[in-house]
């Protein structure tokens, strides 16, 4: 039996159809048990764009342009138009014939979770189906891209505190739901924080997610190390990297949230430049185990004499607080965007923001608050409006990619060239990997 045939039978027919991933949602909903209903009771109201709302037929989608690749080049991401409604979507097309058994298992886990989860702060999968030798995964096109895209293209020295507050609250709401459902995300980072044209913040990156439920019981800790995790090592907590008998739980995601907060505020990722592999993250692990704690870079963490200096363009800032005597390289941004020549970190974040980050980055997991507790932190009291009202204004001069005129078949070349130019800054391959 060919591998593709095995995948089609095992993945699409048994696993996917049993999970109701082929648009037969009404039948699946009638079979959900009371336990699942209770688990979903604390979430926001069901939305319309759940799995099965888009047709599982490749002919219903007009592929416009390639906007990313991933999964060792086995995945191509297309911007596409859904023909019945004209809505634009992102399509991940995965070459199943070339996938290894481990990759298939990895994909099955993601698709299983995507069916179980229904929350407005988690990226929805609108349809999943097999087209010839490819697995097609249909998701909304997030017109602002990821938070990482925005940092790379417009906010090299970090975002404003209020913008970050909206993004972190969206992440926390997703994590609160994920943890309540008995899962650990294990891949919280800015490239997995997506923003739609109307300012909706969604969490992605479900491929690394891991369940705490074993044999019907919720385990206290898990010991599994994330597969394909080299890209996410700087965000992982000390206890995940340590891989000892004590294991880790949902609080490892809270540490990753703290690293993400530093990433959003400073414009780069702490520990990013430390050499590491999936199997030997030695230096990074030692730094985290020894209590090296990243921080927000501003006037309260950078010595005044350094703020008066023009930052060097060589080397990237680790964003790590090591005390007032640390050298100036530690605080140089590497790619400062300040045209006036002043220090890009000559700013002051609120004490509440600093306290929030310190709570998330506690070395002892027991001292880290839960996602539910953190949503009530004073840091979020500055939020006065809905994200849909505030984020488009806060993200200026960035505008969402919503102009698709000129991409019609009668004008393919000029329209697609303009569209590809507008999409060129998006790291779409990292939205879910």
Question: How many domains, in number, for the residues?
Answer: 2
Distance between the termini: 30 Å
How do the strands of the widest beta sheet line up side by side?
Answer: 1-2-3-5-4
CATH names the topology of the largest domain as Transferase(Phosphotransferase), domain 1
Number of helical regions: 14
The structural class is: alpha+beta
Apparent shape: globular
CATH C-level name of the largest domain: Mainly Alpha
The appropriate CATH architecture of the largest domain is: Orthogonal Bundle
Helix content: 25-40%
| Low-confidence parts | 6-49, 322-341, 409-419
DSSP strand content: 5-15%
Q: CATH-wise, what's the superfamily of the largest domain?
A: Transferase(Phosphotransferase) domain 1
Rg computed from alpha carbons, rounded to a whole number of angstroms: 22 Å
Query: Sheet bearing the most strands, described?
Result: 5 strands, antiparallel
H/E topology pattern = HHHEEEHEEEHHEEEEEEHHHEHEHHHH
Mean pLDDT over all positions: 78
Keywords:
globular, protein serine/threonine kinase activator activity, Phosphorylase Kinase, domain 1, 3-stranded antiparallel β-sheet, STE20-related kinase adapter protein alpha, 2 domains, 5-stranded antiparallel β-sheet, alpha+beta
């Amino acid at each position: 039996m060919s591998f593709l045939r095995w995948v089609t039978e095992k993945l699409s027919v048994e696993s996917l159809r049993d999970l109701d991933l082929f648009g037969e949602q009404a039948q699946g909903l009638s079979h959900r048990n009371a336990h699942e209903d209770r688990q979903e009771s604390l979430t926001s109201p069901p939305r319309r764009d759940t799995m099965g709302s888009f047709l599982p037929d490749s002919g219903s989608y007009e592929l416009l342009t390639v906007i990313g690749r991933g999964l060792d080049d086995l995945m191509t991401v297309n911007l596409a138009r859904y023909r019945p409604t004209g809505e634009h979507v992102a399509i991940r097309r995965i070459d199943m014939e070339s996938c290894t058994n481990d990759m298939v298992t990895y994909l099955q886990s993601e698709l299983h979770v995507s069916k179980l989860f229904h929350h407005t702060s988690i990226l929805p999968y609108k349809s999943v189906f097999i087209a010839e030798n490819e697995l097609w995964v249909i998701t909304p096109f997030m017109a602002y891209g990821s938070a990482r895209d925005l940092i790379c293209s417009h906010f090299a020295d970090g975002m404003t505190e209020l913008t970050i507050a909206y993004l972190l609250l969206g992440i926390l709401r997703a994590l609160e739901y994920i943890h309540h459902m008995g899962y650990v995300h294990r891949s919280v980072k800015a490239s997995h924080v997506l923003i739609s044209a109307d300012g909706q913040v969604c969490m992605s990156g479900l491929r690394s997610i891991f369940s705490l439920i074993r044999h019907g019981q919720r385990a206290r800790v898990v010991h599994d190390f994330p597969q394909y995790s080299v890209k996410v090592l700087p965000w992982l907590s000390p206890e995940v990297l340590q891989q000892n008998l004590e294991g880790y739980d949902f609080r490892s995601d809270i540490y990753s949230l703290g690293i993400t907060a530093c990433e959003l505020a400073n414009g780069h990722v702490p520990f990013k430049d430390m050499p590491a592999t999936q199997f030997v993250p030695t230096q990074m692990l030692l730094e985290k185990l020894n209590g090296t704690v990243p921080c927000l870079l501003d006037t309260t963490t950078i010595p005044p004499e350094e703020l008066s200096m023009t930052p060097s363009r060589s080397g990237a800032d680790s964003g790590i607080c090591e005390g007032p005597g640390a050298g100036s390289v530690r605080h140089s941004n590497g790619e400062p965007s300040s045209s006036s020549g002043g220090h890009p970190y000559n700013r002051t974040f609120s004490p509440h923001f600093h306290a929030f980050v310190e709570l998330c980055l506690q070395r002892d997991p027991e001292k880290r608050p839960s996602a539910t507790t953190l949503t009530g932190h004073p840091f979020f009291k500055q939020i006065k409006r809905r994200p849909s009202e505030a984020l488009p204004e806060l993200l200026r001069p960035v505008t969402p990619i919503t102009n698709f005129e000129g991409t019609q078949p009668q004008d393919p070349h000029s329209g697609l060239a303009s569209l590809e130019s507008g999409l060129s800054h998006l790291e779409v391959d990292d939205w879910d990997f």
